[in-house]
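tool=predict chain=A
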Amino acid sequence: MLGAASGMIKMNGIMLTEVIKPLTWLIGSWSGEGKGEYPTMEPFEFNDQLKFSIRSDAFELENLIHFEQVARVKEGNEFIFKHWEAGFLRPTEQGKIELQVTHNTGRIEILEGKFVELDSAKNRFTLRFRSTLLHNSQGLVKARTSERIWTFENDRLRYLQSMCTEDVEEMTVHLDSILERSRKNG
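tool=predict ok
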């Protein structure tokens, strides 16, 4: 649990660390289209759905934001379920943000992130994460490093994911999608 020395502020009656406050702009559901590619696979189009949420009782103890992401790949005229991941965004004592991710395929990642751009007056940020731990279940292509860049502006979220694997040693873009906030969230 983070103490007063970590830069706490109060918002809607809940104590927040300053580093997590901009991430509350993401709370809600997002959807959009994206393109995927990698040197070891054919390019593809996908539908991306991303949801950020909090449990207020848990959030008061530790500023965790839960996320869930589901991707459906376009096959013909249909989008077929392909990938599901979930996890948490968590502020660290060093003023950074940890992204904890579990994939349905058996991969587990912990990434450390920081704001490379933050304009609170315009509700705009760019956040870059890089993996600090990667575990690949047996049978998976071994990812060695993963990087994610989230750019938020005007209720649009661009999600860019790059990685290097045992087969592709250079950091290479894998996914690129643009999502818009679902208007059902109010």
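Residues 4-185 form a domain with the Lipocalin fold (CATH 2.40.128.20). DSSP finds one helix and twelve strands in the chain.
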